[in-house]
């Protein structure tokens, strides 16, 4: 038999490590979320630390009555996309209420219900119009993974921050950023010599670096916060099983749920 590859040592990677309790209490954090649940999945620790939070969900529009169910609808047991999106908005309000966060639902429709994506300028304008004036930090998706809605919002939202002259941070879209697990420098565990999760990050990293966000920040979630995050996500009842990929536990797997990541400019406070 061939020899079993030895685990690699944890490779060096410049980054900042924070405990969730050490995050700065932002005066008013506004999170731009591609879909109803992305903010809770990706920014739970940041939202818990902030004094006030608004979550703008970009693709929360109701599909026209009579829209045929897409594959995603059938996968989640839905036969009526409009009714399902109405339910998802209700779930979002319940989930964000547990964080004291205000939901804002834009009327752009999700990818399965349109023929072409909206122009980037239209998405920028919609976000700009929705951001509360009291916002001090705008958190936007990094666009990890391949979902076109995440990629589009990752392109548009930083332009909205620039237009509004707001402090910008990007977050690692969860669970997409950890589909194959977190890199070993995130977890602190030896690297698997036959698996490099970070190799899937190239496109998102280029986008993030383009906006000057060069400080990779790893936030460690203690067990109690992990449980709270899972409990909050449970309010998105129509999405739990599909997001978990059934028995794969894509969201709640102990190998993934213990960390969140965001990216900021060098020298900014935690």
Please explain how this structure is put together.
The chain has helices at residues 38-49, 71-75, 81-97, 120-130, 148-164, 184-187, 202-210, 223-233, 240-243, 254-257; strands spanning 16-19, 29-33, 53-57, 102-105, 137-141, 167-171, 215-220, 259-264. The mean pLDDT is 95. An eight-stranded mixed sheet has the order 1-7-8-6-5-2-3-4, with helices on both faces. Helix 1 (38-49) packs across helix 8 and helix 4 (120-130) packs across helix 5. The radius of gyration is 18 Å and the shape is globular. By secondary structure, it is an alpha/beta fold. It contains ten helices and eight strands.
Q: What structural category characterises the helix and strand content?
A: alpha/beta
The span between the termini is 49 Å
Mean pLDDT: 95
User: For the CA atoms, what is the radius of gyration?
Assistant: 18 Å
Q: What's the tally of helices?
A: 10
Which runs of at least 5 residues are low in confidence (pLDDT < 50)?
A: none
- The helix/strand order is EEHEHHEHEHEHHEHHHE
Task: Tell me the number of strands.
Answer: 8
Task: Identify the strand order in the major beta sheet.
Answer: 1-7-8-6-5-2-3-4
At a glance:
This protein has 270 residues and is an alpha/beta fold.
Q: How are the elements arranged and paired?
A:
Layout: E1 16-19, E2 29-33, H1 38-49, E3 53-57, H2 71-75, H3 81-97, E4 102-105, H4 120-130, E5 137-141, H5 148-164, E6 167-171, H6 184-187, H7 202-210, E7 215-220, H8 223-233, H9 240-243, H10 254-257, E8 259-264
Parallel strand pairs: 1-7, 2-3, 2-5, 3-4, 5-6
Antiparallel strand pairs: 6-8, 7-8
Helix pairs in contact: 1-8, 4-5
């Amino acid at each position: 038999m061939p020899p079993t590859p030895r685990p690699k040592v944890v490779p060096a990677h410049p980054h900042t490590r924070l405990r969730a309790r050490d995050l700065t209490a932002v005066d008013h954090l506004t999170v731009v979320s591609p879909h109803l649940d992305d903010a809770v999945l990706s920014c739970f620790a940041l939202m818990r630390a902030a004094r006030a939070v608004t979550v703008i969900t970009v693709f929360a529009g109701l599909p026209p009555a009579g829209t045929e169910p897409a594959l995603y609808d059938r996968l989640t047991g839905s036969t009526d996309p409009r009714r399902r999106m109405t339910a998802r908005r209700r779930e979002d309000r319940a989930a964000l209420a547990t964080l004291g966060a205000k939901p804002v639902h834009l009327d752009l429709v999700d990818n399965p219900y349109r023929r072409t994506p909206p122009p980037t300028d239209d998405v920028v304008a919609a976000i700009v119009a929705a951001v509360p004036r009291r916002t001090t930090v705008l958190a936007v998706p990094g666009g990890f993974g391949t979902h076109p809605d995440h990629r589009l919002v990752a392109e548009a939202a930083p332009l909205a921050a620039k237009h509004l002259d707001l402090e910008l941070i990007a977050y690692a879209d969860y669970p997409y950023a950890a589909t194959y697990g977190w890199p070993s420098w995130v977890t602190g565990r030896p690297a698997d010599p036959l698996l490099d999760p970070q190799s899937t990050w190239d496109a998102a990293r280029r986008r993030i670096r383009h906006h000057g966000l060069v400080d990779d920040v790893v936030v460690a979630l203690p067990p109690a916060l992990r449980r709270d995050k899972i409990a909050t996500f449970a309010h998105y009842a129509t999405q739990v099983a599909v997001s978990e990929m059934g028995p794969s536990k894509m969201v709640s797997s102990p190998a993934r749920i213990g960390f969140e990541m965001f990216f900021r400019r060098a020298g900014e406070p935690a």
